[in-house]
Fold this protein.
Amino acid sequence: MTTKHTPAPWIDNGEGLIVSNKGDVATIAAAYDLHNDYTGTEQEANARLIAAAPELLELLEGLTFIAETVAHLRGLERDILPTTDKARKLIARVKG
């Protein structure tokens, strides 16, 4: 069974928490690890990365589709498929 993630956009609220487009806080993700003492700069970088995750997933799916389509049309499957196979496995892992 796969669980859908909270729809994008996710936004760094500037306090190390990621909020959804509906304003839900903390149930999405905390940009810090309570067991580590991250600096504010590292926490901000983590928040930006987490907030971009839904868009990165969507972009990876699109680029993978384009790469496979172009490879098929140009007979380059052997060159491209090892990379797109990795991308597809990552996409599947993220989606559950």
In short: DSSP finds two helices and three strands in the chain. Helices lie at 40-74, 77-95. The first helix runs from residue 40 to 74.
